[in-house]
């Protein structure tokens, strides 16, 4: 994800094409075009969301290995999330990278198409999983859409566990997995934004913006 994003940013700053929407004397770098910025921000938000979910999963796996039974249960839930959603994110982000490159995205010398090919095999390796939901609503009180998504995950998880037929479980497993992965990733980005707001550091200017965009756009 990040390689595709970084290359797309570099290309968008370097590639000059068309006048800016607010008016300009001549062509401008395409990063000045709103839709290109939208795609770049989506790439970054998805990448950071997947990375946040991965870090949280690794922490729970480590704690579970050291004997924490609650962490072990959380790890059992989170591993399928990051394997399936993370690989889907890799495909979407690298595909957006090709889109930002335009026709040049198909030229081997740019490397954009190679990023997509590298990412596209991973969902085939990992497959998808039917899962149960995460509990997030307490920490997401200030983000109503995220809290609502967490409650929906819990409700659907309870229904799947108790009342759903096997066909319903299998048919709904992929979107349910995505719901839960987005909820956990949004939660972790929110916690990261809180941390940098308190502690400062190099991410103080960007992390709240990325987390806010994820919660406002990806979560719904």
What does this protein structure show overall?
The protein has 220 residues and is mainly alpha-helical. It has seven helices and no strands. Helix 2 (34-65) crosses helix 6 (166-199), helix 3 (69-101) runs antiparallel to helix 4 (112-126) and helix 5 packs antiparallel against helix 6. The longest helix is centred in the last third of the chain and has 34 residues, at 166-199. The radius of gyration is 19 Å and the shape is globular.
Ends distance: 22 Å
> What portion of residues is helical?
over 70%
Number of helices: 7
Q: What is the overall pLDDT average?
A: 88
What percentage of the residues does DSSP assign to strands (E)? under 5%
The helix-strand sequence is HHHHHHH
Morphology call: globular
Content-based structural category: mainly alpha
Regions with little confidence, pLDDT below 50 for 5+ residues: 128-133
Largest sheet: none
Nearest-angstrom radius of gyration? 19 Å
**β-strand number:** 0
């Amino acid at each position: 994800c990040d390689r595709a994003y970084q290359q797309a940013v570099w290309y968008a700053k370097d590639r000059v094409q068309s006048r800016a929407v607010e008016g300009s004397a001549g062509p401008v770098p395409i990063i000045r075009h709103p839709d290109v910025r939208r795609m770049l921000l989506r790439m970054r938000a998805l990448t950071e969301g997947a990375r946040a979910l991965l870090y949280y999963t690794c922490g729970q796996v480590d704690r579970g290995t050291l004997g924490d039974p609650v962490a072990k249960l959380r790890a059992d839930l989170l591993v399928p999330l990051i394997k399936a959603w993370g690989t889907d994110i890799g495909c979407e982000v690298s595909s957006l990278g090709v889109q930002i490159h335009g026709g040049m995205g198909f030229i081997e010398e740019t490397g954009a198409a190679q990023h997509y090919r590298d990412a596209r095999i991973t969902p085939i390796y990992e497959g998808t999983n039917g899962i149960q939901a995460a509990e997030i609503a307490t920490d997401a009180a200030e983000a109503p859409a995220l809290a609502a998504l967490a409650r929906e995950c819990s409700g659907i998880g309870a229904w799947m566990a108790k009342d759903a037929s096997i066909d319903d479980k299998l048919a709904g497993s992929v979107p349910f997995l995505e719901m839960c992965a987005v909820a956990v990733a949004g939660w972790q980005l929110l916690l990261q934004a809180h941390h940098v707001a308190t502690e400062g550091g190099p991410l103080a200017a960007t992390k709240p913006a990325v987390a806010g965009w994820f919660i406002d756009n990806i979560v719904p």
